[in-house]
Amino acid sequence: MALMPVADALSAVLSGANPLPEEMVALDAAYHRTLARDLAARRTQPPQPMSAMDGYAVRAADAGDLKARLKVIGEVAAGRPFERTVGPGEAVRIFTGGVIPHGADAVIIQEDTTVDGDHITITEPAAAGRHIRPAGVDFREGDVLLEAGSRLSDRALSLAAAMNYPDLAVHRRPKVAVLATGDELVMPGSEPGPGQIVYSNGYALRALARAEGAETVDLGIAADTVEATTAGVRRARDTGADILITTGGASVGDHDLVKKSLEAEGVEMAFWRIAMRPGKPMMHGRLGPMRVIGLPGNPVSSYVCAFLFLVPLIRALSGRKTVHHARANALLGRDLAANDQREDYLRARLDEREDGTLIATPVMQQDSSLLGNLAAARALLVRPPFAPAALTGNECEILMLPE
């Protein structure tokens, strides 16, 4: 099978990835969930004109003269309106958030008045509308302020609450199961024996998935046998996983049994080799409604492929409006040789000039086993197939990695 271009592979992964069904959740449980429906305000905010300052509600016609002396006839506090109408020569003490009483059309801040018993003298002329928040200045009933497909931020939750929603319709979280394979893997904290290595891929993959709003399931480490791997696939299916991620065993060696195991369980493979570096031996297929992504075992290849393919898939299943990573421009921090037929994703450090220009400097060692360089990188520098040699200072394209 020829190497599949990255864009074609991503299209295959996202094909038919429709948003998962909606569910109602309490407002406090909706952080970083994706709205399933447009949200229209159930009320007008503020519902009536309100004071923006502490001071006195007055008629501007009475308070335009510095010699004006007004009688204070009452008080307004937030939640306690004044029932009478403000007449000529009258004022009402008012506090921030208080409803502007009938008859008043301006607020004089308390610093611009002199108090004399139940009267005030104006020391700064009033102007109609000054220090008043008009009704509906924030939003009006029926205004659509949050759209379906939006990921709910902390500010969006505050807005939804102000719109009078105690719960929200959101898409179900995708469930991502992660299965490692390899006789050489031992858990962190163990003492590796001869030829063994400490398992690390799953921790990054599950964190990446959770950061995108997915629920994760750790299926542990399967031995390098078809029986152990197929048992892991069955466990993923039994948990109701929407996505199964396997790591390791995606190459073509005698002990790389993941593809054989997946096919033995009925997974319909869409592709199993991609024209990219790192990550050429990535696989993708379907087992009924469950999507399967077989990642390479090398930790950098595993992470880069998950970032490029798993993240957009989670976003699509979550119902997000935008699923693709945004690309940014930077300047090269060092010379690069011409590229071959594979699309390159170089781990790069970033520096920022005073004018905001980003300088992307690929680390010197791009080996797909080097976790130290991956952890230090802030971006992936994208090199298209057959890209010509590039010099320091040339423009380049980057994908920002999660902080």
Describe, in short, the structure shown.
The protein is an alpha/beta fold and 403 residues long.
Itemize the secondary structure elements and their pairings.
Elements: H1 6-14, E1 22-26, E2 39-40, E3 50-51, E4 55-58, E5 69-76, E6 90-94, E7 106-109, E8 113-116, E9 119-122, E10 132-133, E11 144-146, H2 154-162, E12 167-171, E13 175-181, E14 185-186, E15 197-198, H3 201-211, E16 215-222, H4 226-238, E17 243-247, H5 258-264, E18 268-271, E19 276-277, E20 283-287, E21 290-295, H6 299-318, E22 327-332, E23 343-352, E24 358-362, H7 371-376, E25 379-383, E26 395-400
Parallel strand pairs: 5-6, 13-16, 13-17, 14-15, 17-21, 19-23, 22-24
Antiparallel strand pairs: 1-12, 2-11, 3-10, 4-6, 4-7, 5-9, 8-9, 18-20, 20-21, 22-26, 23-24, 23-25, 25-26
Helix pairs in contact: 1-6, 3-6, 4-5
CATH architecture of the largest domain: 3-Layer(aba) Sandwich
Give the tally of β-strands: 26
Q: What's the tally of helices? A: 7
State the domain count. 4
State the name of the first-level CATH class of the largest domain. Alpha Beta
Radius of gyration: 31 Å
Helix percent reads: 10-25%
CATH topology title of the largest domain: Molybdenum Cofactor Biosythetic Enzyme, Chain A
Average pLDDT across residues? 94
Rough shape?
elongated
Structural class by sheet pairing and helices: alpha/beta
Distance between the termini: 37 Å
Q: Beta-strand level of the residues, as a percent range?
A: 25-35%
Low-confidence stretches: none
How would you describe what is shown here?
With 403 residues, this protein is α/β, with parallel strands linked by helices. The chain has four domains: 6-20 and 172-318, MoaB/Mog-like domain (Molybdenum Cofactor Biosythetic Enzyme, Chain A); 22-45 and 151-171, no CATH class; 50-133, Beta Complex (Molybdopterin biosynthesis moeA protein, domain 3); 327-400, Beta-clip (Beta Barrel), CATH 2.40.340.10. It is 19% helix and 30% strand. It is built from seven helices and 26 strands. Strands 7-4-6-5-9-8 form a six-stranded mixed sheet, with no helix packed on it. The longest helix has 20 residues, at 299-318. The model has no long low-confidence stretch (mean pLDDT 94).
